[in-house]
Design brief:
The structure is a homodimer of 348-residue chains.
Chain A lengths: L4 E2 L19 E13 L2 E11 L6 E7 L5 E7 L5 E2 L5 E4 L2 E4 L2 E9 L24 E10 L2 E10 L2 E9 L6 E7 L3 E6 L8 E7 L9 E6 L6 E7 L10 E4 L4 E3 L2 E9 L5 E8 L7 E4 L10 H4 L7 E9 L2 E8 L3 E8 H7 L3
Antiparallel strand pairs in A: 1-25, 2-3, 3-9, 4-5, 6-7, 7-8, 10-11, 11-12, 12-13, 14-15, 15-16, 16-17, 18-20, 19-20, 20-21, 21-22, 23-24, 24-25
């Protein structure tokens, strides 16, 4: 099932439309933007994944060293210890390395379709030893005048969720890692419920458990507790292998509406919806039996990593949710959903 | 290397010395006690692992259902989907199940060697949907008059760290899950540092990262942030496969002294030490090159899961640390260490 209306202009951003961060690398993919209103414009905080030009017979991966400089690691493709069967995560002698290095780029638009960079608002680059393999998939939530950026920090010690706050998009306050390894896909609720802040997050387990959506509480958005699993994968379903939250839950009369992603064993990523109780968001009221969006368009089926639609950013205006999403882990697209129709698909 | 003096009475507690929680099960193992002083006596909070009597050709596992009742699951041993090659965690059709179900039992002693149960102080049983596969390996930290119990909560949704507080060991206040899946081995510092509480914990990652020791900060012991990895496994060492904190760090003039466990690929568990900066405990000053304790005694080499010494409880009196530890995942033992000698082994 697919109840979205895709932008006719899709894809709205491709790797060729943005400049690499340094001449030594090229942009492989644009992915999974955070989305927000600021100064009367629509902004995307796009994940830009780069890697150096490859030489025949070898694979060269970029990492940031702890001094914040780009370093290159090269493996021989015929080395029996080297495994590049997953295009996103390579393995060498038991250790894992990302095939690309990501940073976050700000682009803005007056119409929500045509985006461009503004030299006044620079990129957010990885910083420090928790981000030497990059920063990824940033959600942007707004509470009062402050924007809260929850994003994936990647380094050899693990993958966790970082928090950055800003009010002006020029000065950034880094609040460290709020969810430790292995964790991604953190979506903050944009208001307190019963005096507490809430977040959805996605821990992964090497044994017992899986890639499930959890909820947590906080007094201050920096320290989190009372973790509970609210949505597991479902055997035989489109979301049987992994699930993870998208952007900030949308407050509706029926409950908090969360658009999430689910993938099956073949790594086909679709979108679905969860409806959570307004007063107690750890209570799931409804969940999509069928996807609300599937990779159906050509640009969603073919690319760096095909058969993927993945969203972690949207704008809400009345009944309309405009989602911005990564397609095939390569290009950025847009689509619209009716909240009423999503609720109807949930039997509400 | 081994610089401990084992109790001559070891093992001090064996499965036969404790009664099962219900007649339908037997006690397979006593494991890894938390340790504390209370009412002038030494107390152990022992993990008791039980399972029903097994019938030939099948394997029966116990779980708690959400109503808090014991339920049994039976698998045919010749079912090709059933894998019991790890005696601790069985697999069926991709899902993992613990071979035993654990609860926590209080035993006390006047001499620290001979322990017995007191009907006034009952067991702590698993409770709720996060503990249907049991509760395990409880650390006990004391801050003021309050005891803080950090323990492993196990259920199909994952393995995480729970917090319970008590002042009288009769009334328990459950504070939910403080570190989400996959996490274990949480040791709380017993005082604030720079106004913040600190904890060591051990997340595990399915890819990128591993089974490493992390540190976190909290304003209230219930909500945690600022997670940082402080000790990874070390290739070629005795702790090359997994490491995890033991009991509360011991404050010394040289720094916070943490006795931790490390295991190699063959699942041989030894103990080592970490020395952390007094003002900034995320800074590691020294770490054991060689173990300070190895499974050398017969009862440490042979048992339910052999070649294991594992501690998460100790008493500190002057220069002497009395550790209580699980041997071969089956019996409880005691041993003493000199803080000076441990520091000397760290080059201090």
């Amino acid at each position: 099932m697919d109840i979205t209306n895709r932008f006719s202009e899709n894809p709205i951003l491709t790797p060729k439309m943005v400049k690499p961060s340094t001449p030594s690398v090229g942009i492989e993919c644009l992915l999974n933007p955070g989305v927000f209103w600021f100064q009367g414009k629509v902004w995307l905080l796009v994940r830009v994944a780069e890697r150096p030009e490859q030489q025949e017979g070898t694979t060269t991966l970029p990492i940031y060293n702890q001094a914040g400089q780009l370093e290159l690691m090269t493996f021989r493709n015929d080395d029996p210890k080297f495994d590049d069967s997953d295009k996103r995560v390579f393995e060498y002698d038991g250790a894992h390395y990302l095939s690309t290095l990501s940073h976050l780029r700000l682009l803005s638009s007056h119409d929500g379709i045509h985006f461009s960079e503004d030299p006044e608002y620079g990129p957010i680059f990885p910083l420090g030893e928790q981000e030497t393999f990059g920063i990824e998939d940033c959600r942007v939530s707004q509470i009062g005048d402050t924007y809260y950026l929850t994003y994936t920090k990647v380094s050899p010690t693990g993958v966790g969720v970082g928090l950055i706050t800003t009010t002006d998009w020029k000065h950034f306050d880094r609040k460290g890692m709020i969810f430790p390894a292995h964790n991604k896909d953190c979506a903050l609720f944009e208001e307190r419920i019963g005096g507490k802040y809430y977040a959805l997050h996605r821990p992964s387990s090497p044994s017992i458990g899986g890639n499930y959506i959890w909820i947590a509480q906080s007094p201050d958005l920096e320290h989190w507790g009372h973790h509970q699993c609210i949505a597991t994968t479902r055997a035989g379903y489109w979301d049987c292998a992994r699930v993870g939250a998208g952007a900030a839950p949308i407050k509706t009369e029926a409950g908090w509406l969360e658009i999430y992603h689910g993938a099956n064993e073949a790594h086909r990523y679709c979108l679905g919806a969860l409806l959570l109780d307004l007063q107690n968001p750890s209570r799931v009221l409804a969940r999509s039996e069928e996807p609300i969006m599937e990779p159906l368009a050509g640009y969603e089926q073919t690319g760096f990593f095909g058969n993927v639609v993945f969203t972690n950013g949207h704008l809400v205006e009345g009944d309309t949710v405009t989602i911005y999403y990564g397609a095939s882990d390569e290009v950025i697209c847009g689509a619209q959903l009716s909240i009423k129709e999503v609720l109807k698909s949930l039997g509400r």
